[in-house]
Specification:
The complex is a heterodimer. Chain A is mainly α. Chain A is built from twelve helices and no strands. Chain A is 74% helix and 0% strand. Chain B is mostly helical. Chain B folds into two domains: 152 residues, no CATH class; 72 residues, no CATH class. In chain B, 74% of the residues lie in helices and 4% in strands. A two-stranded antiparallel sheet of chain B has the order 1-2. Chain B is flat, with a radius of gyration of 24 Å. Classes of the chains: A mainly alpha, B mainly alpha. At the A-B interface, helix 1, helix 2, helix 3, helix 5 and helix 8 of A face helix 1, helix 3, helix 4, helix 6 and helix 7 of B.
Chain lengths: 273, 253
């Protein structure tokens, strides 16, 4: 005579494996889309609008981002899920604060990098992708860049896992490398979906490369290689400053920080014993 | 005000289908029609002013950038209209800028119309019926509602720091210092609040799998369900036709 349990069931191993599969499929979709776009582009721009490329860029990158979100989100602890909206708003609000400071950068990934450092690469990737999707309710043009934003979160989390945030001078280096990769991945979206970049400064740089006879994708990729690494290096440095400004008892609440010893200094709980 | 009675998923399916078909059609006339249609619908819906204001803020710099970029420098262009040092105004470049600009205008206006004509709580309740992870609805709703609260909090932090003598000078050091003095207290408070919220949500079984119920009932009907299927099918047909057409004319284009 055993009563059915009234508590909620714990997720089984099968569910965990399915989630992992979704993550891998998402990453594969993003990688395959990028390879397709780069391989087919030379014939493309000369032929006109590149409608198929635009459809592939939109479909492939958004599908990849959606699969990543579906795979990662249910596995995250509540403390991380609750941090995500905060990170998303930080991406937007701090971006605007930087805008009013008159500095020539965009800084729209600070929240994403913050979550990635505290909660790991998977959480970072999901935050980046969600950031683009939620932000698109206010500014639809960021929607197709979801895959690039997910890559930034993933790379930031990976850098944190391997200890690059333990030394303050290593964080901008990791940001610089992340910026190179993220810029290269985002360039096909700018080229094929929008036919250019939206900022006046970035537009001028693209125009300069176009004047030298580059294809549109090459010009936008070179522009991204000028702007993005610098931007991400600063973003990573800001995120590191913020993480170190948080009290230990807050940062060490995150299992990722404890397990991989992400930050310099000891766990306050262990130090006392 | 007809739109609020529709299911948000119906509006989402309609917006997605229109965008896919516009991209697949890739003709400036079609994009222009879609953009004009979005403006007309928003006028019928009573949100034309907001859609146009938000749309202009996003699209004006984009159009400017496109016209400078492709209007002046388009190495693939053959029909030169004006020659001006290294810059050449070509008909092909202007055509490309027009095509891309109109397509992006349609993209932005349709999505702005969508986000101004739904109510976020309705969308979250509708998403819950789709078997998406419930965390997705939480993050979406929470972000859109937190944004004004956090902006207000940033204002309070600034006032507090100004009361302690924060003066933003002209130099870059002073500006950076001011940003740091505002950002760190803001983030500290927000992360602390998030920790408290996590405990409250965990106590209510937020992180557990299983179906969710909602207090909010979202209108839905067989007609709307049918419409959603038809809209997505039309989008798929448009994509297939486009790909078939591009291979018939020799290689992907």
């Amino acid at each position: 005579m055993s009563q059915p349990s009234l508590t909620l069931p714990t997720p089984g191993q099968q569910a965990g494996r399915n989630r992992r599969l979704l993550e891998l499929l998402g990453a594969a979709a993003i990688a395959a889309t990028f390879v397709y776009l780069v391989l087919t582009q030379p014939a493309d721009i000369a032929g006109g609008l590149g409608s198929v490329s635009a459809l592939v860029a939109l479909g492939g990158f958004l599908l990849g981002a959606a699969l990543l979100i579906a795979g990662v989100l249910p596995t995250l602890p509540t403390s991380t899920v609750v941090l995500m909206p905060v990170a998303l708003v930080l991406n937007i609000v701090l971006g605007q604060l930087m805008g009013t400071s008159g500095l020539p950068f965009y800084f729209d990934a600070i929240g994403t990098v913050l979550v990635a450092v505290l909660a790991g690469p998977a959480a970072g990737a999901a935050t980046g992708a969600l950031s683009s999707i939620v932000w698109s309710f206010i500014n639809p043009t960021v929607l197709p860049f979801a895959a690039g934003a997910a890559l930034i979160g993933f790379l930031a989390g990976t850098a944190a896992r391997y200890g690059l945030f333990r030394r303050f001078y290593l964080a901008p280096v990791a940001g610089f490398v992340t910026g190179i990769l993220a810029g290269v991945v985002s360039a096909p979206v700018a080229a094929f979906v929008f036919g250019g970049t939206s900022g006046a400064g970035t537009g001028a740089i693209v125009s300069a490369f176009r004047a030298m006879g580059d294809t549109l994708l090459a010009a936008i990729t070179k522009q991204a290689l000028i702007s993005d690494p610098m931007d991400k290096a600063i973003v990573f440095a800001i995120a590191a400053t913020l993480v170190y400004a948080l009290p230990r008892r807050t940062t060490f609440q995150f299992p990722f920080v404890r397990r991989f010893n992400v930050l310099a200094g000891k766990d306050p709980a262990k130090r006392d014993s | 005000m007809a739109a609020p009675r529709l299911n948000p998923l119906t509006l989402l399916a309609a917006a997605a289908a229109v965008l896919v078909i516009t991209t697949a059609a890739s003709s400036w006339a079609f994009s222009l029609t879609v953009a004009a249609g979005a403006v007309a619908l928003s006028a019928a819906n009573g949100c034309a002013r907001r859609v146009l204001l938000a749309g202009t803020a996003i699209l004006a710099p984009f159009w400017l950038s496109l016209l400078v970029m492709h209007g002046l420098f388009y190495p693939e262009g053959r029909t030169v209209l004006v020659h001006w040092g290294p810059a050449r105004v070509t008909a092909e470049g202007l055509g490309f800028a027009l095509d891309m600009g109109l397509r992006t205008s349609a993209f932005v206006l349709v999505l702005m119309l969508f986000s101004f004509s739904i109510r976020v709580p309705d969308l979250v309740a509708a998403l819950a019926t789709l078997r998406l992870p419930p965390q997705f609805g939480y993050v979406l709703a929470s972000t859109l509602m937190l944004a004004p609260i956090i902006a207000a909090r940033l204002g309070k932090v600034r006032q507090a720091q100004e009361a302690r003598g924060l003066v933003v000078g002209k130099g870059i050091r002073s500006r950076l210092g001011a940003v740091r003095l505002q950002m760190i207290p803001l983030v500290l408070g927000l992360v602390h609040d998030a920790g408290t919220r996590a405990q409250a949500l965990d106590a209510r079984g937020f992180g557990r799998p299983g179906p969710r119920t909602t207090y909010r009932k979202v209108n839905d009907s067989h007609a709307q369900r049918g419409f959603r299927v038809v809209a997505l099918l039309l989008a798929a047909v448009a994509v297939v036709l486009r790909i078939a057409a591009s291979y018939l004319t020799g290689g992907p284009a």
